[in-house]
Design brief:
Order of helices and strands of chain B: HHEEHHHHHEEHHHHHHHHHHHHHH
Strand content of chain A: under 5%
Largest sheet of chain A: none
Oligomer: heterotrimer
Distance between the termini of chain B: 37 Å
Strand content of chain B: under 5%
Distance between the termini of chain A: 88 Å
Shape of chain B: globular
Strand order of the largest sheet of chain B: 1-2
Chain lengths: 238, 508, 491
């Protein structure tokens, strides 16, 4: 199973490339370019496995994408330059300070062991607990958002399972067991029945004509004379 | 000459077979096979050497036959006929192989009649003289009657005479229309001049001549109807279809293959060759989309698709299911033809070829199962897939092709037909897709009931499909795959003729 | 050309004279030979037929101009039409004698008379095909009728045969009596019995107000009763199933082909030469009426044939139906219609006689005339069954057999006159007829015999069978047969 899949995956790259993009009559959908370019933008030169795979399934290389749509790339390059104002410098300095403070504290606590982390934890138990439980955010999330969502999706699933799928199954069943059966019977009884009926009527007409042929010569002669009279009458009327 | 050779080699084969001693059955079968392989070789040569870039007929032979009525032995091929000739010639040896073991009595008569049937079919697709066309059309009746009636199933007598009466009824109307065309073929502007003719190309050009009696739209309408009913019985188009389930079910496997593969195509081929090409005005009356009559042909196509599919879904007999599915699939041909545009007609013709190949496969497969289990009750099987994996694989391929899975041939023809039809009859085309869904339903359901699930203990020892049977199926299977991914293989052959026809139709 | 006098006519009358001479010779020979050598009598009558054929060909070539010649002061006429029918009748009689040789129904003691009667009836039919005088028409018709009454009742040991003969006589007497009455009325009105002059005479009398058109009409209808009885058209057909069923099979075959052909010859002479001229048609247009009669005839024949179990009776009804098809061509009054009838008669001769020959063979071998007796014939006697299938499908009109081409020329002629309705009726009838013909085929091919032993036939049987089967396959496919009737006209 694995070997064929690998082969298939390998094949997919050139195959899709040839079949999809090199055919002139099908326009390549534009969103693929954008997606490809986003990947290119996220990791311009690292070519991480993830990004690479994402691109390859569309069968297009970054270089190609860039080449194909130069103007879009240009816009993104412009976007990369914005944000060199003073506010950013303050933010940079601040964040470096905060980070430095954090590094200093942890160096004091865990490397130098200047303070006992356990002691402080017992002293500030409630605060510690709050921090340890990440402000109880997960609990809040589980209790409120997830429960409601799960309850809702159960509801939807139930609706889908019983009503929507029930309708689908019902349609399937009605089509298969009732509609098709009715059409089948109709074909057998009505359409084919009509054909057989024509045959029967023709046949019975034959039987009726045969009954005139009584075998009695009187009948025959009566028909002759009647026929002559009838012919003269019809002649006169025509 | 090559074409005449192709048509009459099977007839010669019939005479040879009838002269062979009754006892040497193996020899009879081999001789028959040889005589059906010759047309196949010729058909392949014609197919390859056919000049695709021109519209006119090729390999023409035109010699006088019955002078008193100016009837000629006029044959020739264009892209459409060469495609169907290839189909017919291909199914010939396949059917002989399929009859190798399961015809128990009278093998000599069987093979002789089969060869006569082949001559009729090949001649029909090559005939360019209306009278000759009719004679070949009818020539298939006699052998078919005997092949169903003598070698058929339990209700063979009923099925055989029903087939015969139905078709004869249709061809009677055709005969009247044919005589009417002949009688009017030398009347221009109310003046009779020159000789009458049965020559199809001549009649086609006359029917387009201003002031000619054949070009009169009222005349064309009636003559169109006469021919149409004749062909409709053959296609078959609802409500003239009820011979088909009986004939297919009772006929021996190879004959079902011929019935579905070739005889049904004779109806649609006739509609293209005569009704559309010769009576474009009449055709327009029934397909111009105005009012009820303007939609009637498309409506018939739609009814065939949906009605045939629903009937198929209701069947529990495997062969009957395939038979009704044929009615449904021929509906796509009618719908595509009714569209009268390039996509529609190309799709319809491609569908004719594809259906010939796929339904032949399906009937062969049903036959394989029947030969082993001696019944065809779908619900009586189950889990066969474990016992006959190769058989199951080929069946799945045929089912998928028939239900229109993209990548296999059935899809391309149906899709093109629907694309063409959608441009002319939106609502009917949309509704027709119900047929595709139902088609998928009955095939998948059958697949499930016959091949999946737990194995019915009765079929513990079911032998796998043998080499001879595989040999009959493989060429058809290859064709379904090749035509699925490379439809131009066939489309190239007739697209020129079709565009010519479309131009003529759109000129109305 | 002026009509020839009696003595001058004799040379042209030699075919008929030869038949009469041989009929007498057959009776004398019958007295001389022993009973079990009755074949000799049959061979002598065959020689007579051969001589007659030679005489026909010689007299025809004597008449280099190919212009019609009137003989015996205009009583009978020698033209292409008559020659055609005479040859056709000779072929039918030859076939009948060959059938009779193989038939086991007939009483060997009576065979001498039997063959003499066959020659005599042929003589009568020759006259029917060539008479152009009202009196001659009646005499020829009566010659044929009287002889056929005897032939129909020839199976002395069979009550069915006697009944058939009795019904035939009674029916025939009424029909020919009615006809004679009609003929005398016509003679009274026209003052002449000559068919070539009668139309102008009657037209003149009608114009002068001497007689009303109703009178002429009644007279024509009375004559139609006699001719209709010969060709078994509705409503004068009712004798034929009973007589055909009761008569010996070779005679049934003979009546259904030769008698019908002669009847049509008479019909065409009377209605085309006598009453088909424009002057008569102005006041009395009988075409539509006879078209209706034709439609009824084939419909009644085909429908009544459907439920039959007796093959002979089935073929009797089938031959009524074929009379209806032929009548379609006869009412058209066009050269195409005439050519179609003549061509159809050739085809009909081969296929119908062939079918009856198989009935003779099966009656001999299986002892049955019922469809059940044909069960499994395909395995018991494959060649006979194959030939029978060919005849039956040809009678239905399935290509590529000759019957199809026969019907084709007929329907072509009918539609050419714009009678689409008649063509439809005829074609639907062909479809119906398939059903009962196919019932025999079904019995032969699809069913199995109770007695599985294969039947053996002599080589002569197969040879005779192929004499009918081969033309039934090829007549329509070959060009030459269509031109046979080209030069034959009725004026």
């Amino acid at each position: 199973m694995t070997v064929p899949l690998i082969i298939l995956a390998l094949l997919s790259f050139p195959a899709v490339n040839i079949l999809w993009f090199n055919e002139s009559y099908i326009e390549p959908p534009p969103q693929h370019h954008i997606q490809a370019q986003e990947h290119a933008y996220v990791s311009p030169d690292s070519k991480t496995g993830d990004a690479n795979f994402g691109i390859s399934i569309f069968g297009i290389s970054e270089a190609e994408a860039a080449e194909e749509d130069g103007t879009h790339n240009g816009e993104h390059a412009d976007g990369g330059h914005h944000g060199h104002g003073p506010a950013h410098i303050i933010a940079m300095v601040l964040s470096i300070c905060v980070a430095g403070l954090g590094i200093l504290l942890s160096w004091l606590f865990y490397h130098k062991r200047r303070f006992s982390a356990d002691a402080i934890a017992t002293t500030f138990r409630p605060v510690y607990n709050l921090f340890w439980n990440k402000y109880y955010f997960d609990e809040f999330y589980d209790g409120v958002l997830v429960a409601v969502t799960v309850w809702k999706s159960r509801l939807f699933a139930q609706f889908d399972g019983s009503i929507v799928d029930g309708i689908v199954n019902g349609v399937g069943m009605v089509t298969r067991d009732i509609l098709a059966a009715i059409v089948g019977v109709f074909d057998n009884r009505v359409v084919d029945g009509l054909v057989n009926r024509v045959a029967e009527v023709t046949w019975s007409a034959g039987g009726r004509i045969r009954r005139i042929q009584t075998g009695a010569i009187q009948t025959y002669l009566f028909v002759v004379l009647g026929g002559i009279v009838l012919i003269i009458l019809i002649f006169k009327l025509l | 000459m090559l074409l005449s050779l192709m048509i009459f080699v099977p007839l010669l084969g019939m005479i040879v077979v009838l002269l062979l001693p009754r006892e040497s059955e193996e020899l009879i079968k081999r001789v028959t096979l040889a005589f059906t392989l010759v047309p196949l070789v010729i058909a392949v040569v014609l197919f390859v050497s056919y000049n695709r870039s021109t519209v006119g007929t090729q390999y023409v032979v035109n010699v006088p036959w019955i002078d008193a009525f100016n009837i000629n032995y006029h044959i020739g091929i264009d892209g459409l006929s060469v495609t169907l000739l290839l189909l017919t010639a291909l199914l010939g040896p396949i059917c002989v192989l399929a009859s190798w073991r399961n015809i128990e009595k009278g093998i000599k008569a069987y093979m002789g009649l089969f060869l006569l049937l082949e001559t009729g079919m090949l001649g029909f697709f090559a005939a360019l003289d209306l009278f000759l066309f009719f004679v070949f059309f009818e020539l298939t009746l006699l052998p078919m009657y005997f092949l169903i009636g003598v070698w058929g199933g339990p209700r063979k007598e009923y099925a055989a005479i029903k087939f015969f009466l139905y078709t004869l009824f249709g061809s009677v109307l055709m005969l009247v229309a044919m005589i009417a065309v002949y009688l009017n073929s030398n009347v221009i502007n109310g003046v009779t001049e020159g000789v009458r003719t049965f020559d199809i190309p001549t009649l086609i050009s006359l029917a387009g001549t201003e002031g000619h009696a054949l070009a009169d739209s009222g005349f064309q309408m009636w003559v169109f109807l006469g021919f149409f009913i004749g062909f409709a019985v053959k296609v078959p188009i609802f409500p003239f279809h009820t011979w088909l389930p009986d004939a297919h079910v009772e006929a021996p496997t190879a004959i079902s293959v011929i019935l579905a593969g070739v005889l049904l195509k004779m109806g649609t081929y006739g509609i293209v060759r005569i009704n559309m090409a010769m009576f474009p005005e009449g055709f327009a009356i029934f397909t111009n989309g105005v009012g009820f009559w303007g939609n009637s042909l498309a409506l018939l196509g739609f009814i065939n698709i949906v009605y045939g599919s629903f009937c198929a879904l209701a069947q529990t007999d495997f062969k009957k299911l395939v038979a009704y599915s044929s009615i449904g699939h021929m509906g796509f041909v009618i719908l595509g033809l009714a569209a009268g545009n390039s996509a529609g007609i190309n799709g319809a013709i491609l569908q004719m070829f594809n259906h010939g190949v796929i339904s032949a496969m399906l009937f062969l497969l049903v036959g394989v199962l029947y030969d082993r289990a001696h019944h065809r009750e779908i619900n009586g099987f189950g889990g066969i897939g474990n016992k006959m994996p190769i058989y199951t694989g080929i069946t799945t391929l045929a089912f998928m092709a028939s239900l229109g899975l993209p990548g296999l041939s059935g899809f391309v023809g149906e899709a093109l037909s629907l694309i063409g039809a959608f441009q002319e009859f939106e609502l009917l085309t949309i509704l027709s897709t119900i047929g595709i869904v139902v088609g998928a339903a009955y095939f998948l359901w059958t697949l499930q009931r016959v091949f999946l699930g737990t194995l019915n203990p009765k079929y513990e020892d079911l032998p796998e499909i043998n080499k001879r049977e595989i040999l009959t199926l493989v060429p058809l299977g290859i064709l379904t795959i090749v035509l699925g991914i490379w439809p131009n293989f066939a489309l190239n052959m007739f697209s020129e003729s079709v565009s010519n026809l479309v131009n003529a139709l759109s000129a109305i | 050309m002026d009509p020839l006098k009696n003595i001058e006519s004799l040379a042209y009358f030699s075919p008929e004279i030869i038949l009469v001479v041989f009929a007498a010779a057959v009776i004398i020979l019958d007295l001389l030979v022993k009973n079990r050598e009755s074949e000799k009598v049959a061979y002598l009558s065959l020689v007579g037929l051969g001589c007659s054929l030679a005489a026909i060909l010689i007299t025809n070539s004597l008449n280099g101009s190919k212009e019609p010649i009137s003989l015996f002061f205009g009583m009978i006429r020698l033209d292409g039409f008559a020659v055609f029918f005479k040859i056709l009748l000779l072929m039918a009689t030859t076939a009948t004698i060959l059938f009779s040789l193989r038939s086991e129904e007939l009483d060997a003691k009576l065979k001498g008379e039997y063959y003499a009667l066959l020659l005599a009836i042929t003589f009568g039919m020759f006259l029917m095909a060539s008479s152009t005088n009202l009196l001659m028409i009646f005499i020829s018709l009566e010659t044929v009728s009287l002889t056929s009454y005897i032939l129909a009742g020839f199976l002395t040991h069979s009550p069915r045969s006697s009944e058939a003969a009795f019904k035939y006589i009674t029916y025939g007497a009424v029909a020919s009596g009615t006809m004679l009455f009609g003929l005398s009325m016509l003679f009274g009105m026209a003052g002449t019995g000559d068919l070539t002059q009668i139309s102008s005479q009657i037209a003149a009398v009608l114009a002068s107000g001497g007689v009303s058109s109703l009178g002429v009409l009644i007279a024509i209808t009375f004559v139609l009763a006699g001719i209709g009885y010969k060709i078994a058209s509705v409503p004068f057909h009712m004798w034929s199933p009973d007589v055909y069923e009761g008569a010996p099979i070779p005679i049934t075959a003979f009546l259904s082909v030769a008698s019908k052909a002669a009847g049509f010859a008479l019909f065409l002479r009377f209605f085309h030469t006598g009453f088909g001229t424009p002057e008569i048609m102005q006041s009395i247009d009988w075409r539509l009426l006879l078209a209706i009669v034709s439609a009824l005839t084939m419909t009644v024949g085909n429908l009544a044939a459907l439920p039959q179990q007796n093959v002979k009776r089935l073929l009797a009804y089938s031959s009524i139906a074929h009379g209806g098809y032929l009548l379609m061509g006869a009412v058209l009054l066009t050269p195409e219609g005439l050519a179609a009838i003549l061509f159809y008669l050739i085809v009909y001769l081969f296929m119908n006689l062939g079918a009856f020959y198989v009935v003779v063979l099966i009656a001999n071998e299986a002892g049955s005339e019922m469809i059940d007796g044909y069960r499994g014939l395909a395995t018991r006697a494959p060649l006979v069954a194959g030939a029978m299938a060919i005849f039956l499908f040809s009678l239905t009109g399935i290509p590529p057999l000759a019957g199809f081409f026969g019907k084709w020329v007929l329907f072509y002629a009918v539609i050419g006159e714009g009678l689409y309705w008649l063509a439809f009726v005829g074609l639907l009838n062909s479809v119906v007829s398939l059903y009962y013909y196919a019932r025999i085929v079904k019995a032969m091919y699809f069913e199995t015999a109770e007695d599985p032993n294969s039947l053996s036939f002599s080589n002569g049987t197969f040879a005779l069978l192929s004499v009918f089967a081969v033309p039934t396959i090829f007549i329509g496919l070959l060009n030459i047969f269509y031109t046979l009737s080209d030069k034959i006209t009725l004026q």
